[in-house]
Amino acid sequence: LAGTLGIAAETMSSAAAAASLKCAIRNCLPVDTSRQSGDEVLCYTNTGGEQAFGRCATPARPHCAMCRTEPPCESWCEKETYVPLPLGSPCHLDRECGGGELTSCYLGVCRRTLWAGQRCDAADNQTVCLYGFQQCVDGFCKGLGTNEPCWDGYRDGEDLDCQFGWYCLRGFCVPQLPNGHTCFGEHTSECVRGHRCNLSGKHTHCAPAYSLPDGMLSSDERLCRSSHINPRVNECALAPPYDNSGGACFSSADCAREDGSTGDCTCKSWWNGMGSPGYCELAVPDREKPAWLRWWEHSIANCQQNWPEERCAAETGEEALLTMVLAERQATADPSLPVPDCAHDLLEVLSVAAAAPRRTAVRPGTAARALAAL
User: Fold this and answer.
1) 83-87, 137-141, 229-233: lowest mean pLDDT where?
2) Out of 126-135, 142-151, 224-233, 354-363, least confident range
3) What is the DSSP secondary-structure string of 302-361?
């Protein structure tokens, strides 16, 4: 079984390496883009494969926002920024509603939409529990337990119906497998949070993430302390350096290392359609990213496996820590940075100056939104 899985993994890796990178083309809009009526100026266009940016330089119309409808679409400089609707207001789209990451347009009304496992107030008629029992019970949106029927086809995750510590397997919620338990890799969340199924070796089992030293067999790089597997022997190992860090690439095959593995070929932040669309990104082990490591420890202890980072941060009051993580991700070998002035208003750069990350001792709790953008 392990040999077959290893061959399959190698085949998939080779296919991924051969796939060409597809990136959006980005350019600055021509200076003269005003409508015939006078002072209305085009500031953003999206054709689906190409984006163009412009600055709103006139005091009368200083604001621009990316259009969110299906491309092709365009945005024009506006007099005032869009004011989100308060909870309880009639709506058509999620983006119309204010109130943070947990707010959306639900059945035509702006409400706080909570997922199974989140803290709730049964008396609050502006809040609705989604997934699971879809009810607020004892202060939490109640999820489904052992052998209760679930659906794994939600867009946001397979296990959203199930309570903490359970996952949806073949239509029923079942407990996640503990450390050392036999696993088969048939579900991404079959092992308890913070663990992965190691399919290499004589006994496939759940193992803690980032626990295996160099030289240990592993089927998942997230099990290795080094965050890297030597594909020739399927063992954890330090990633060998490659000379093309920050260099041009069209696919991950252009970011090859000495041991036969490949690095990440990532889209440039600014690519005008000429030359290579991507670059070979820096390879930094996860354990060497201090903000990310703190966030990972926090999220596996306090958040359900399918919650997006933004929902986890909003639920636990760790928006500032997430800001640090997102800023940390901006450390990059991207040769196209900084982006031109025409795109500064729309392409966000995170600021951590006002963030003061702290540890949250318990899962429940909510704090003010702290994600900042320049």
Assistant:
1) 83-87
2) 354-363
3) HS-TT--HHHHHHHHT-HHHHHHHHHHTT----TTPSPPGGGTTTS--B--TT------S
Nearest to 191 by CA among 171, 221, 169, 212: 169
Cis peptide before 338 (omega within 30 of 0): yes
| Average pLDDT of the residues of the chain | 86
Under the phi-then-psi rule, with left for phi > 0, alpha for psi from -120 to 50, and beta for the rest, what region is 315? Answer: alpha
* Backbone torsions φ then ψ of 56, nearest 5 degrees: -95, 95
Per-residue pLDDT of 308-359, as tens digits, reads 999 999 999 999 999 999 999 888 899 999 999 999 889 866 555 544 444 3
> Which pLDDT belongs to residue 69?
84
CB 291 within 8 A of CB 320: no
Please check whether residue 333 is in contact with residue 284, taking contact to mean a CB–CB distance below 8 angstroms: no
Q: Which of 220, 181, 222 is nearest to 203 (CA)?
A: 181
Who contacts 363 (Cβ-Cβ below 8 Å, separation ≥6)? 301, 302, 303, 315, 316
DSSP structural state of residue 289:
-
Count of C-beta atoms within a 10 Å radius of residue 337: 12
The CA–CA distances, whole Å, from 332 to 85, 280, 294, 328 equal: 37, 10, 20, 9
Residues 6+ apart with CB under 8 A from 290: 328
Residue 74: name the closest of 53, 46, 55 by CA: 46
Cα–Cα distance for residue pair 210/69, rounded to 1 Å: 40
So what's the pLDDT on residue 222? 97
Q: Round to whole Å and give the CA distance between 128 and 114.
A: 6
